[in-house]
Design goal:
Elements (H helix, E strand, L loop, with lengths): L1 E5 L6 H10 L3 E5 L6 H5 L4 E5 L5 H14 L2 E5 L4 H11 L1
Helix pairs in contact: 1-4
Length: 92
């Protein structure tokens, strides 16, 4: 299962990857807006938005790409490892 995580903290990227590996997910993580983010998202199985630590511009970009590819979006206010485990535990 491929997962795109948008938002979160830079220092948590390694933990996000480790948690995704535990649930047999292949992650792409965007903690900051990049110039080519819309083309880098691709067509994942799931997009996770950590809404507390993400800009509105990143949210609009992610939602637009999800609608193009018909991808599910999960929004979570906190960007903790426990929150990510809860999301992947329910869906993976």
């Amino acid at each position: 299962m491929s997962v795109v995580i948008i938002g979160g903290h830079d220092r948590m990227v390694c933990q996000y990857k480790k948690i995704c590996k535990e649930y047999n997910c292949k992650p792409k993580i965007f903690t900051k807006m990049s110039a080519r983010m819309s083309s880098q998202i691709g067509t994942p199985d799931l997009i996770i938005l950590f809404t507390n630590t993400v800009s509105h511009k990143m949210v609009h970009c992610a939602v637009a790409e999800a609608q193009k590819s018909n991808v599910d979006i999960v929004r979570c206010h906190t960007s903790s490892g426990t929150a990510l485990q809860g999301i992947l535990g329910k869906l993976a």
